[in-house]
Amino acid sequence: IARLLQVHLADIGCDAQIAGSIASARQRFARGGFDLVVLDLMLPDGDGLALCRELRRGAGTLPILMLTAKSSELDRVVGLELGADDYLGKPFSVPELLARIKALFRRVDALRQALPGSLAADELLACDGLRIDVPRRSVSVDGVPVELTAREFELLLFFARHPGRVFTRMQLLDQVWGYNHEGYEHTVNSHINRLRAKIERDPAHPRWVLTVWGVGYKFAEPS
After folding, report:
1. What is the rounded average pLDDT for all residues in the chain?
2. Measured between alpha carbons, how far apart are the two ends of the chain, in Å?
3. What is the DSSP string of 143-187?
4. Read out DSSP for 14-57?
5. N or C terminus: which one in the chain shows less Cβ crowding within 10 Å?
6. Would you state the pLDDT for residue 141?
7. 3-class state of residue 220 by DSSP
8. What is the value of pTM for the model shown?
9. Around Cβ 100, how many Cβ atoms within 10 Å?
10. How far apart are CA 215 and CA 34, in angstroms?
11. Could you give the angle at the alpha carbon of 88 between the alpha carbons of 85 and 94, nearest 5°?
12. How many Cα neighbours within 13 Å face the side chain of 76?
């Protein structure tokens, strides 16, 4: 499967390297130079979840797409909790996988376009103790830094730039993830829950990321 994916990734201009074990992956990452990781959870010398956690600590903004036979809702949630940006279960469609990889790259490219001197580079969003520093990709609540994954940051930034506007899960998939396949709304729910757990003072009664029952989510309007 890895070699098949390597061929298909070459067709869209990606130079993909294969690591068949955690040890091999660590050696390759020590040399650096990677822009995205497709990670299987079932590896011969250990748990891919542990490697995901390790990669997230060492390269916080590196996009990670989990590709695995473990496709239950619990497995997806655990993977996302440990910092994966996306999750695709086996068996999978190669065109869908390539679409997801392209979407991750588009998100990264969009963030990199915030060059010094641009409006986005100077952007600072603040709302009742929540502070989002766009060029530094940092978030704090009441002065306390909050560690977010790349996807969590993008989701929060998208909400904060559109206060009061209600978005459906499909709209959020399209705007933040870059795709809108039906059946993946759970991805949005999982990320919303994780984001709330990190930034909300009381996640059960959120102040910033609000649920609009029967529709979707919105960011609170400034008071």
Report:
1. 82
2. 52
3. TEEE---HHHHHHHHHHHTSBT--B-HHHHIIIIIS---TT-HHH
4. -------SHHHHHHHHHH---S-EEE-SEETTEEHHHHHHHHHH
5. C
6. 93
7. coil
8. 0.59
9. 24
10. 38
11. 115
12. 16
